[in-house]
Design a protein that fits this description.
The structure holds 2 protein chains of 2 kinds. By secondary structure, chain A is mostly helical. In chain A, 74% of the residues lie in helices and 2% in strands. The longest helix of chain A has 32 residues. In chain B, the strands form 4 sheets. In chain B, strands 1, 2, 3, 6, 13 and 14 form a 6-stranded mixed β-sheet that branches. Chain B has a 4-stranded mixed β-sheet with strand order 8-11-7-12. The chains are: A mainly alpha, B alpha/beta. Chains A and B meet through helix 1 and helix 12 of A and helix 1, helix 3, helix 4, helix 12 and helix 18 of B.
Chain lengths: 291, 416
């Protein structure tokens, strides 16, 4: 009886999980094993052929490399900067509340809006970035940030960092405020320098929060669509796509226009992110056990 | 163990419930509560929705059938349609810029099945032909537009140019003189980025005597076309009379934006650009024929389509809806409001007195359509959009790009 009652209370959330997690996952796998016409009519099953074709795509190595760079650079820089910001925000100073509020803004704004805004900031002819750099004489001629193959990835990563900072900073901030004051007193009594305290007390104690921040950021950044899509929309080909935008282009924007192939990449994307997170969690728990 | 099993069973039950609720597909034909789904692309925020909403209300009053009207913006319409068709819930009436892939998949009614004879006879011949697949009309013309050559009169005067260039040689000279004015002024804005590269390319290609196809086969990498693409690459890299990175510039927020800002001497535009320029009153512009290397200026005509999807029991309802739209006062009222060009003989008659439309209507006889009647075109278009820009980048190889496009086009022609 008790068991059935529990089920009654769990029912709605189980139904929700089935509808928004299980069903799409099953549909995705099914689509990845099917052949579709240009318009989207399912034309039967093809087994694993879509996965084999995926490996044959010329753009795949570039796209994978872009994705690794995109995720690694954003997460690394974001975490390092967030450690600094969070440290600053734990200090008591006049206007701290205002700064904490201001930090939320890039997080609260819609990603599409932010990306569009940056597209104009970076613009070769109208953008404010070139204007500022030219006035400061930091560059001799304007730069086409989003059109130049050498700068477009860095320009997108900068925006990715900008929008990831608030969340990460707040997670680290929460971790910092959970550290009891006594350990700092003990370090002070032992005569530890500021650096030594940070390195041997703060950092180890904030590690659980960092772990959460890294895992969640890897997932968010890997899955991020709007920034790359908006800032890269002018560039032909797949030279600056990540696996997420590549998937969308395969399904709807490239001459492949193939839902089955895109679904196969979708399945791969899910597996990649699962593996990355599992790997990370394992190494962290292994290190924790060793420490 | 039993607990896990129970949980699993509960999950399964819940899933069935939810899926059952989602799967209530095209049940609309039965019962008294009939309705049709109409998907329309958003041409403008001001006019598209009000017109189709009004038309739907009028239709519901006449036919007693409800309309589920969905206005979808161009950026996401392909994706949303693909999703509808994958889940086996196509719309009843659809407005899009392509039709032949849907006809090939046998999803559509032909004109004989859902249009009255009067409507069919009213279509302008060329546009009716542009909607045919294997000899039958499936893509019903909904509206048309034509590109025209826009030039900035102030910049032309400053550069000492008497009038718009007629030949390619004159065009290069004009572009160089304007570029030489300095101060960030650009001779010609060339948008070969992914948004609409196929349109820009088609105009240049035709004005050098080339074409997409030769007979029934694709001819994208013909000698003429290679020559044309080299000419465009030279504009960017040798003469340096274009904006920066033309292969990575889109039309709406790139080339048009620069022209509206008065920075550009020449650009290929169309009537909506003219309305924006008129509203902003910043640039004094003229409209002319395309510069040509063959002596006969050709422009690009664009035809968009309405199509009707085959579903059990929807034929009459769809027919009534289409006949209502194609009544001369309805179709012409909408096309005029959006600033596009007619597709019917009656509409042409009514609109020919409009002075603003004169340059485009004059160009219409020399307008050519891209090969939308070939289902392979839908892939070729996407391929051109994604790749042709690479040819005009520094170090780009026009021949190699066109060879690859040709290879893919031939493969697309043979694919399902």
């Amino acid at each position: 009886m008790g068991r059935w009652q529990a089920l009654f209370w769990l029912g709605p959330s189980l139904a929700l999980i089935a509808a928004v997690v299980l069903y799409p996952a099953v549909a995705l796998v099914r689509a990845s094993l099917s052949r579709y016409s240009f318009t989207g009519v399912r034309q039967g099953s093809v087994g694993a052929a879509n996965y084999a074709r995926l490996l044959e795509q010329e753009a795949l190595p570039t796209v994978v490399a872009n994705t690794v760079l995109w995720v690694a650079a954003i997460v690394l820089v974001t975490v390092v900067l967030s450690l600094g910001f969070a440290q600053l925000l734990t200090e008591d100073f006049p206007g701290r509340r205002l700064v904490r509020w201001a930090l939320i803004v890039p997080w609260a704004a819609s990603l599409i809006m932010t990306a569009k805004l940056f597209a104009w900031i970076y613009d070769y002819y109208f953008g404010i970035l070139n204007h500022v750099l030219l006035s400061l004489r930091l560059v001799a001629a304007p730069v086409d940030w989003l059109g130049n193959d050498a700068t477009v990835m860095a320009a997108m990563i900068a925006v990715g960092i900008f929008v990831s900072l608030p969340f990460t900073t707040y997670v680290v901030l929460a971790g910092l405020s959970a550290i009891p004051g006594e350990v700092y007193e003990a370090a002070w009594v032992d005569g530890a320098s500021a650096w030594r305290t940070y390195w041997s007390v703060t950092l180890p104690l904030v590690r659980p929060a960092l772990l959460v921040a890294v895992v969640l950021n890897v997932i968010y950044v890997f899955n991020s669509f709007p920034i790359v899509w908006t800032l890269n929309d002018r560039n032909p080909g797949f030279a600056h796509d990540t696996m997420i935008t590549y998937m969308y282009k395969i399904a709807f924007k490239s001459s492949l226009r193939d839902v089955g192939l895109a679904a196969a990449l979708g399945v791969v994307n899910v597996l990649v992110i699962l593996l990355a997170v599992l790997f990370y969690l394992r190494t962290m728990s292994w290190r924790e056990a060793e420490a | 163990m039993t607990r896990a099993l129970t949980a699993l069973a509960a999950l399964g039950a819940a899933a069935t419930l939810v899926l059952g609720a989602c799967d209530r597909g095209p049940e609309r034909s039965g019962g008294g509560d009939k309705s049709i789904t109409v998907v329309i692309a958003e041409y403008s925020k001001e006019h598209t929705k009000p017109f189709w909403q009004g038309l739907s209300e009028q239709y519901t009053k006449q036919a007693g059938v409800k309309v589920d009207l969905r206005i979808i913006d161009w950026n996401s319409i392909d994706q949303q349609l693909s999703t509808m068709i994958q889940s086996n819930q196509p719309p009843d009436v659809l407005n899009l810029n392509s039709f032949s892939s849907y006809a090939k998949d046998q999803l559509l009614y032909s004109a004989d099945e859902v249009l009255s004879a009067k409507t069919r006879d009213d279509f302008i011949e060329a546009f009716a032909r542009g909607g045919e697949y294997q000899g039958k009309l499936y893509g019903f013309p909904i509206l048309s537009s034509a590109r025209a050559f826009f030039y900035n009169k102030d910049l032309f005067a400053r550069a000492g140019l008497a009038g718009p260039p007629k030949t390619w040689d004159e065009f290069v000279q004009a572009a160089r003189k304007i570029q030489a004015l300095g101060g960030g002024v650009i001779g010609y804005a060339l948008p070969l980025g992914p948004e609409e590269a196929q349109a820009e390319w088609a105009i240049w290609m035709w004005n050098n005597g080339g074409d997409w196809k030769s007979g029934d086969g694709w001819a994208i990498n013909s000698d003429k076309n290679i020559q044309t693409l080299r000419f465009l690459a030279d504009l960017a890299n040798r003469h340096r009379v274009t904006q920066i990175n033309p292969g990575k510039t889109n039309r709406t927020d790139g080339a048009f934006q620069l022209f509206k800002d008065g920075k550009v001497g020449m650009v290929m535009g169309f009537s909506p650009l003219a309305s924006q320029l008129d509203a902003e009153k910043k640039v004094s512009y003229g409209i002319a024929e395309m510069p040509t290397a063959t002596g006969q200026a050709v422009t690009l005509g664009v035809e968009d389509y309405l199509m009707a999807f085959k579903k059990t029991g929807n034929q009459d309802a769809v027919k009534q809806f289409l006949d209502l739209y194609y009544q001369p006062e309805n179709i012409t009222r909408w096309i005029a409001a959006e600033g596009f060009l007619p597709v019917t003989k009656s509409g042409l008659q009514q609109m020919s007195s409009n002075a603003k439309l004169k340059p485009y209507l004059d160009a219409l006889p020399n307008a050519r359509l891209v090969p939308t009647t070939d289902p392979a075109w839908d892939r070729v278009k996407l391929d051109v959009q994604q790749n042709i820009g690479l040819a005009v980048q520094p170090g780009g190889n026009p021949k190699q790009v066109l060879d690859q496009l040709q290879k893919n086009a031939v493969a697309a022609a043979g694919s399902r």
